[in-house]
Amino acid sequence: MSLIVHRIGPACTIQDQGRVGYLDQGLSRSGAADLQALHEGAVLLGQSPQLAALEMAGMGGEFEATQPLGIALTGAPMQASIDGAPVVWNASHQMEAGQRLVIGAVTRGTYGYLHVSGGVASKSFLGSRSAHLTAKIGKTVQAGDTLPANSGPPVRGMRLTLGNRFSGGVLRVIASFQTPLFDQETLDRFAQTEFRRGSRANRMGMQLDSEGEGFAAQGQLNILSEVITPGDIQMTGTGNPFILLPECQTTGGYPRIATVLPCDLPRAAQTPAGGKIRFEFVSLDEATTLQTAYSAELARLPGRVEPLVRDPHDIPDLLSYQLIGGMISATD
Amino acid sequence: MTANTADTFPRISTVGYDGLLVSFADAMAEPSNRAALAFRNAVDTAAWDGVIETSASLASAYLRFDPDKLPRAEIQDKVQHLLAQQNWLEAPLPTGRRLWRVPTVYGGELAPQLNEAAAAAGLDPVEAIRRLSDTKVRVLTIGFAPGQPYLGPLGPEFNIPRLKELTPMVPEGALVLAISQFVLFSGPTPTGWRHVGQTAFRCFRPDGPQSFALKPGDEMQFLPISRDELEAIRANNSDGTGGATCEEIAG
Fold first, then answer.
1. B34 CA to chain A: closest CA distance, Å?
2. Which chain B residue has its CA at the smallest distance from A286's CA?
3. Which residue in B172, B104, B98, B162 sits closest to B133, CA to CA?
4. How far is the alpha carbon of B204 from chain A, nearest alpha carbon, in Å?
5. Would you say residue A309 has pLDDT above 90?
6. pTM of whole model > 0.80?
7. Contact: B143, A26; criterion CB under 8 Å
8. What is the 3-state secondary structure (H, E, C) of chain B?
9. Interior CA angle at B33 toward B8 and B12, to 5°?
10. Is the pLDDT of residue A331 over 60?
11. Measured between alpha carbons, how far is A227 from B18 in angstroms, rounded to an integer?
12. What is the CATH code for B11-90?
């Protein structure tokens, strides 16, 4: 089973949970920018969140099913249709052989996901199918490619009703080992500043803009290179923050002011250009409470899946449906 | 603020939500790098349930763990207990280390900043090449890009600063120098380090049976060859070794 790619946006890659255990070789995890979307796709299709999906940054593509194939659409909402009929986002759908799925631009957020029943079965490297473009592992998916799918069962249309994590907002952060390099005045100002996501953003990291002066550490240029993790907020030489994402470098000499909690990282990554972001420092105890609640919420996802009932508003041409079959004309 | 600011070493501090950093110094020095490598190996050997991955940087060991399986207080205790077991600054280097001898073109068109680096070190180019190629340097850490080693220490005369202006691009296999260290680049990259040598050694070999050539603690020596010799090596370099030899270091 597979999907033929007829058209595709410029920044679509195959992603799973990423590659763990190669940090000591300078290789960061990679994996989906919005890991929550992998969990959502998994419950919609009744499969493991470890399976790979297609991550689509900003723009989707046109895909043809070679055989009957179940799919799910999650993450940043995008315009989508199958053979011209709009289909619901955050839902699973059955495609028949020859049918075409068209996914357009994001309407909110940044990263949309196309999941297939059984998972995308591309070649695995060091235990993961995730592309890592900065490490030259894998490539962006191109028109003419085929996305192989493992054989999965046919799907019933299901949907998830979810909150909005596609417009930025308050990101909870914790102090990290380099936080003390910043004085209290700078930390306070950082926590009071409203940032906007800048235009420089990719899977390595996203730049944040703000009014006023930057956020410099003391002795910024003489810091020993140290370990970097996704979610770290790194200051460049000019004191402009970047939130680091799954393809970040593994070590670096620019200081990190704080780290975004893993539970808020999907929302961070999904923030569209211009989206507003604020940071709120929480203690490690508060962080533990927040993370525990988040894990519990993920564990409850399967219970929140509902059958997809077609809303008449989603049906494009109601008049073409025979709504009153068998009725005899009054004029007869 | 939970991050530790004490000036005493070894120092345990937090890295994000699920990491600990055990630092042996706040500047690069041979004993603290040895301590970081040895401590990281000891953590791997202990194989505590709940540790997800570890690494060693220039003077620190990093542990990432699952706080649901291994609560923070518990891993802190384990780390402290392990730290107290010996003076890690005197720990031996890991076993199974290897010495790589890598053919290298110094200076000329392929490595145009050799003369500048020699001048910054107060040496003439011939003497700089002699000293750089005589020194066996250690893989202090691997990072920044896949498989890419930071190597040192070189003599104090090579403690030269990074350039203010980045060189837009040096190729894969470039040997660059700053702050008494080499980096051997695993891919084309812009850099503020001076490009003093060029090799055909590939640190990251995603298509090969071993994706990563080097391990932290390995030693390397960069032996001078001519440009013609390098071209001959490049013509027959499908395995990416770049004409390097590799031998086990005894003990």
1. 15
2. B17
3. B104
4. 9
5. no
6. yes
7. yes
8. CCCCCCCCCCEEEEECCCEEEEECCCCCCHHHHHHHHHHHHHHHHHCCCCEEEEEECCCEEEEEECCCCCCHHHHHHHHHHHHHCCCHHHCCCCCCCEEEEEEEEECCCCCCCHHHHHHHCCCCHHHHHHHHHHCCEEEEEECCCCCCEEEECCCHHHCCCCCCCCEEEECCCEEEEECCEEEECCCCEEECCEEEEECCCCCECCCCCCCECCCCCCEEEEEECCHHHHHHHHCCCCCCCCCCEEEECCC
9. 35
10. no
11. 13
12. 3.30.1360.40
Three-state DSSP state, A189: helix
Q: Where does the pLDDT of residue B29 fall: very low under 50, low under 70, confident under 90, or very high at 90 and above?
A: confident
Please check whether the domain covering A169-282 is classified as CATH 2.40.100.10.
Answer: yes
A288 — phi, psi (to 5°)?
A: -60, -45
pLDDT tier at B4, thresholds 50, 70, 90: very low
Structure tokens at B130: 């002699």
CB contact under 8 A, B3 and A175: yes
Numbered ranges of CATH 2.40.100.10 in chain B: 98-248
Give B110-151 pLDDT, tens digit per residue: 999 999 999 999 999 999 999 999 999 999 999 988 999 999
CB contact under 8 A, B143 and A225: yes
Q: Please state the rounded mean pLDDT for residues B183-195.
A: 92
CA distance B107 to B174: 11
Query: Is residue B2 predicted with pLDDT exceeding 60?
Result: no
Q: What is the pLDDT of residues A131-163, one digit of tens each?
A: 999 899 999 999 999 999 988 788 889 999 999
Among A134, A227, A279, A295, the residue to mutate for chain B (most B Cβ within 10 A): A227
- Pairs across A and B, CB distance < 8 A: 126
Determine the Cα–Cα distance for residues B251 and B91; give it in Å rounded to an integer.
13
Mutate to test the interface with B, among A24, A134, A181, A284 (most CBs of B within 10 A): A24
Determine the distance from the C-alpha atom of residue B196 to the mean position of all C-alpha atoms in its chain, rounded to a whole number: 17
Say which CATH architecture domain B98-248 belongs to.
Beta Barrel (2.40)
- In this predicted structure, the answer to whether residue A284 has a pLDDT above a threshold of 70 is yes
At residue A112, does pLDDT exceed 90?
yes
Domain boundary assignment for chain A: 2-164+302-314, 169-282
Distance CA B169, CA A132 (A): 21
Residues facing A137 on adjacent strands: A132
Of B1, B3, B58, the CB nearest to A224: B58
Place of tokens 């040496």: B123
pLDDT at A326: 41
**What type of residue is A165?**
R
First to last CA, chain B: 44
Say yes or no for a CB contact (<8 Å) between A22 and B146: yes
Average pLDDT of chain B, as a whole number? 93
Is the Cα torsion angle B38, B44, B46, B52 positive or negative in sign? positive
Rounded Cα–Cα distance for residues B226 and A113 (Å) = 52
Q: Alpha-carbon distance A183 to A187, whole Å?
A: 6
Compute the average pLDDT of residues A284-309: 95
Q: How confident is the model at residue A325 (pLDDT cuts 50, 70, 90)?
A: very low
pLDDT band at A125, cuts 50/70/90? very high
